[in-house]
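Weekly sync notes, structure subgroup
Attendees: PM, AL, DS (notes)

Item 1: joint prediction request from the bench team. They want all two components modeled as one assembly rather than separately. Inputs as received:
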Amino acid sequence: MRRYVARRVAALAATLLFVSALVFVVVRVLPGDPAAIIMGTEGSPEALARLRESLGLNRPLPVQYAEWVGGALRGDLGRSIQYDVPVGSLIVSRLPVTLPLALLAAVFMAAAALPLGIYAATHHRRAGDYLAMVVSQVGISVPQFWSGLLLILLFSVHLGWVSAGGFEGWASGPGPALRSLLLPAVALGLFQAAVLVRATRSAVLDVLREDYVRTARAKGLSERRVVGVHTVRNALIPVVTVAGLQLGQLMAGAIVLESVFALPGLGRLALGAISARDLPVVQGVTLFVASSIVLINFAVDLLYVVLDPRIRLD
Amino acid sequence: MMARLLVLMLSAALALTGFAAEAPAQTPARLIVQSQTEPPGLDMTATPATATSGIVFYNVQESLVKVDRHGKLVGSLAERWHTADNKNYTFFLKKGVRFHNGREMKAADVKYCFERALNPETKHPYAKDYEAIGDIIVKDEYTITFALKTVNANFLQNVARAGAAIYPRETVETMKSHPVGTGPFRFEEWVRGDRVVLVKNGDYHVKGLPRLDRVTFRFVTDPNAVLAALKAGDVDASLFGLGPEHVQDLQKDPRFQVITGDTTNDVILAMNNSRKPYGDVRVRRAVTYGVNKADVLKGAMFGMGKILGTNVDPLNPYYIDLSRAMGYDPVKAKQLLAEAGYPNGFDTVLKVSPQYDYTVRSGQVVADNLKKIGVNVKIEQIEWGQWIARVFREADYDLTIIGHAEAWDIKNYANPKYYFRYDSARFQALFAKSEITVDDHARRAVYADMQKLLVEEAPVDWLFMHPRLAVAKKGLQGLWKDLPASANDLSEVSWAPAK
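Output from the run, pasted for the record:
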């Protein structure tokens, strides 16, 4: 186990180094530098040159990269060009929006997908199964920004139950904050739930065809026990794998939905930073998201051992 | 079924968390304004972004002279001014004006701000506007004289610009995130990514103003989200950034008032004068004749806005209406192309950025129009950062469409390095003359000549003036109808008393 963890940590470091170098190069290869965007269609070329110099953009790329990586290792991700605050604190300030959003979406995803997937598998080729598959197909096909807008139309414009967007913050209690996050979480979780329904259904179907399930049924166990105790747990490994990957996708989906719902989260921070070529923020957020995804995958691997004691990570 | 299930689940969740449908609490003295773009910092001496001046200028920081809602220059921090020779301008400051940090604003502060603008170290985006200043003399605490090196007819205009705002020197270091000024509102907080909040300055130097206690600028970028926020009552007004397609819908809604007015934003079809075939004036004139501006206005702006003939917009006092000087005439356009050696037209690329929707929509109409005269336009959509770098900074383009929001920007046509690459000795001479002609009558004549010459040489095709499209809840009063300056003065805005 210890060797396994050491190997994973080394892989994590290598991944992050690779991601950091990739992002660093990509955002600099893009035409348009932050100084030019700050100046827009106004400001003289001299003012632009002075601004570029003060932002340190005229130094050689390897020097800039080395400085940035050095800083990141000490926990300093640099300073945002647009906001003039440390990137680290900017990311931290967005977590109270994005983390609960992703978490709520994940809860919604699991709560909707697991029962529906199991139901579809146990009612294989019956009306309920077909209905579940049609519903999940619709869920996969509808783009998130569109389902987000439909939810806004229904619940805030027509019914007036929740606000159409924005985030009040947690200072005034969990009520208003949750109210701001509920619709985007549903919109975000909807697509992933649709994917997970299919994964759950096929995993449960596979297990239901196993010999030991037949044996369990032959022993006269109730169908509830057969599915609940003997099938689901064994079907969970592929489901957890898919769900783990989806958690990462939830972070990516947040970029679109945070714009639709005007939420000040990590996704919108990244989007704004890319448009403004706020390079330190783009790099910082990407690094943060990449680390989170690697860590989630790590956690999923550990979960395999819990789910199936036969698995040895070494 | 899924939808019903969803409604049920959400309803249950709402009931569980105790979210009753509250009546929207509308405190009359609070205003929530939607803003499309988050500013890249709040220091107007560090960025020319209109997103910055749209919040800070006139509301938090003010200048000696200001452009009022009718486009007229009036005193602001200066009560009045005087010049005998158009080279020495003396400003008499209002007494008792206090910065938000409590200190009184005096002539030494004005001197400091202008000297700082002129100092290359400070990276002021408009340093060039103040180059004419030779000396700044503080006569007494409330009197200051600017001695110009040369006559500069635009001097007062430049003193009224966002870059000439007056601020206390002790706050310079923090202005980017916490601007301090003399304006009707004090800066309270900037929640990055979400909002900027301003609160009433109880000590404002204009009695009875401001009328609002609190103004929140909320950043909502997605136009559909803006519409939803307005309809759900989350924001009270959208002062810029609303698409014309939404305006029509809101005009029918009895809860809202739609304000349409003029702006200084001229939308142009720029041609790269340094590239073949646009170096030939006949081709540029052919393109101008070949574009039906009425169609463009209809297609891009649902007919809202005004057709332009030159760079000078209707809010400019020297505006002359030349919008019909080169009206749509495809026959003439074809004839000009043939004369220029392109009887069968040519292929060209139009670069536009979807950051500004109206440029893409205008481009589609332009391409369709030009096809009829044999010019095949390929539309290439590029991201805003790329547009700035490639088109604007490097002039790597054939055609492009963009709005120029800055007032009094005819100077760009006298700059051969500007991205149009328009290099006309005749125009440059006229512009130089306009800069030193201070007599209003004579200057008006020079401006008329400049406009006529621009029509003749057609360096770009001026399509239309982008209208001001603002939407506010009924009952909000005092908003500016037109936008002669890139600012959103909210000092006189208030809610009508409830009936």
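Discussion: Chain A has twelve helices and no strands.
Action: AL to compare against the crosslinking data before next sync.
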